[in-house]
Specification:
Layout: E1 13-18, H1 24-38, E2 44-47, H2 56-69, E3 74-79, H3 85-97, E4 102-106, H4 127-138, E5 143-148, H5 159-172, E6 176-181, H6 185-197, E7 204-208, H7 214-224, H8 230-238, H9 243-263, E8 268-272, H10 278-289
Parallel strand pairs: 1-2, 1-8, 2-3, 3-4, 4-5, 5-6, 6-7, 7-8
The structure holds flavin-adenine dinucleotide.
Length: 293
């Protein structure tokens, strides 16, 4: 099933993002999470591509297993980091061979130790180039997503230039956008408004990460350039030592965000689950209770 065909068909699209586990224990946690979340009938799940392509085989295996065994439409993440055209073509062929119909085409972050992204010889410098390459090789056999940054990408804080670059990905052929995580819905609504004004009409799915661990989210937001509103951060900071309280605050914030986003016209929500199920389950239960899911 191509994800683009779900928009407009189902009322709202809920999806979950996972990463390929690194250890046996991580594998067991993910299995439990998949089991726990499968009965929430996500429209699709996605599997990340580790930094520098480090999880290439595990991403392909997991995305294919989720689709075959769990019978959930799955989307593979794919980055340009460290791979030339021939290597990317081989990954795409494997994905297509496994029956995967959905790919999110990404540039990826510069490898550790590098401050600027540099394309490898015969590789790609931007996600738009990867998108063009996929469209040339696979036509519309694949549904393609791209990343969007409501607060601007870390390397391009000029929101107008960043939006023009998003426009390049759309022109190259992405079918929908999934956003970077954010905690202030106004940045999403403003982003959608600016995208529409720039002539971008494809669906823009907000990416939401329920906070379950403060130190972890502080690290992540620093890396991806998302900001935590000051008052919310202060509230979390007061509860720093109390894991249960942090989880409760994270779930409350994410639930309120989802309610407001869906009421404000978002086509669905993509949950960054970090391979854990409790927070996402609680949020979706609340959305169901308010008839938003
Ligand atoms: C939903 C989502 C999923 C993600 N999944 C993964 C994952 O699985 N694995 C992983 O490693 N990373 C992942 N990332 C992180 C992503 O790889 C990084 O944010 C990366 O730095 C940018 O990737 P991109 O595809 O947005 O790049 P691009 O769209 O290529 O943009 C990168 C930068 O270049 C600028 N730019 C684009 N085109 C041009 C141009 N023609 N001229 C000048 N500047 C230009 C943009 O403004 C931006 O600053 C994900 C991010 C999101 C939001």
């Amino acid at each position: 099933m191509k994800i683009k065909n779900l928009f407009g068909q189902q009322r709202r699209i809920f999806s979950f993002e996972f990463f390929p586990p690194k250890s046996e224990a991580g594998g067991a946690t993910l299995e439990k999470t998949l089991h726990d979340l499968a009965d929430l009938s996500p429209a699709f799940v996605s599997v990340t591509y580790g930094a520098g392509g480090s999880t290439r085989d595990r991403t392909i295996e997991l995305v294919s297993r989720i689709q075959k065994v769990h019978q959930i439409t799955a989307m593979a993440h794919l980055t340009c980091v460290g791979s030339n055209r021939t290597e990317i073509a081989a990954v795409l062929d494997r994905l297509v061979g496994e029956g995967i119909e959905n790919v999110i085409a990404l540039r990826g972050d510069p490898p550790a130790g590098q401050t600027h992204f540099e394309a490898v010889a015969d590789g790609f410098a931007y996600a738009s180039e990867l998108t063009t390459f996929i469209r040339e090789r696979h036509g519309h056999d694949l549904c393609l997503a791209g990343a969007g940054y409501p607060e601007g990408h870390l390397e391009c804080r000029d929101l107008t230039a960043d939006m023009a670059n998003l426009g390049r990905k759309v022109a190259a052929g992405i079918d929908f956008i999934v956003t970077q995580l954010f905690f202030d819905n106004q940045v999403y609504f403003d982003f959608v408004k600016r995208a529409r004004a720039a002539g971008i009409t494809i669906p823009i799915v907000p990416g939401i990460m329920p906070i379950t661990n403060l130190a972890q989210i502080e690290r992540m937001t620093k890396m991806c350039g998302a900001s935590i509103p000051t008052s919310f951060h202060a509230e979390l900071d007061r509860q720093r030592a109390d894991a249960t309280a942090v989880l409760a605050l994270g779930v409350a914030q994410a639930t309120a965000q989802c309610v407001d986003l869906l009421r404000g016209g978002a086509p669905g929500v993509h949950f960054y689950t970090l391979n854990q199920s409790p927070a996402t389950r609680m949020i979706l239960a609340a959305l169901k209770a308010t008839h938003l899911a």
